[in-house]
Amino acid sequence: MDEDRRMLPAADVPRDGTVLVTLRPVGDVETGTGDQGGDGEELEAMLIELADGIACYRNYCQHWTDVRIDRGNGATVRNGEIVCEKHGAYFASDTGVCSFGPCEGSVLDAIDVAVRDGHVVLADPDYAFERLGPTERPDAAGGSRIDFTGS
Ligand code: FES
């Protein structure tokens, strides 16, 4: 695994919150929702510790795709579910499936990561790791509003 795909020590990823990383799409990434990551622009992903590893999801809600779930200081996590504070959608930390809320049944956009030698590494070939923390874009979650139903 390339050194530049190492993101952070696995021990720094919380279970009761999330931590942001900035990525850049390098493959044929389906942006599809909002303009996050469009044209190779940076995008945010949030990491959360699971019982058996680390999960990584792009940082936008499936209800309103221009809404960041982690606003820069960690998402709210309750009983193993990531909460979008905007309208109270709950997403299972391990699967990304929305179990409750206006976008129930939708799924967060997952990015493959792995833990190697105590570090979280980006395993998804469609993305490059830029840095820890949020993007520098004010509209980091995306630009247009497309909801779960596509309307
Ligand atoms: S924007 Fe996330 S629940 Fe509505």
From TrEMBL:
The UniProt record lists the keyword Oxidoreductase = yes
Superkingdom of origin organism: Archaea
> InterPro entries this protein is in?
Rieske_2Fe-2S, Rieske_2Fe-2S_sf
Annotated Rieske domain ranges read 23-122
Tell me any Pfam family this protein matches: Rieske
Q: Which UniProt keywords apply?
A: 2Fe-2S, Dioxygenase, Iron, Iron-sulfur, Metal-binding, Oxidoreductase
**UniProt xrefs under Gene3D superfamilies:** Rieske [2Fe-2S] iron-sulphur domain
Matching PROSITE patterns: RIESKE
This protein's name: Ferredoxin subunit of nitrite reductase or a ring-hydroxylating dioxygenase
Q: Which organism is it from?
A: Halopenitus malekzadehii
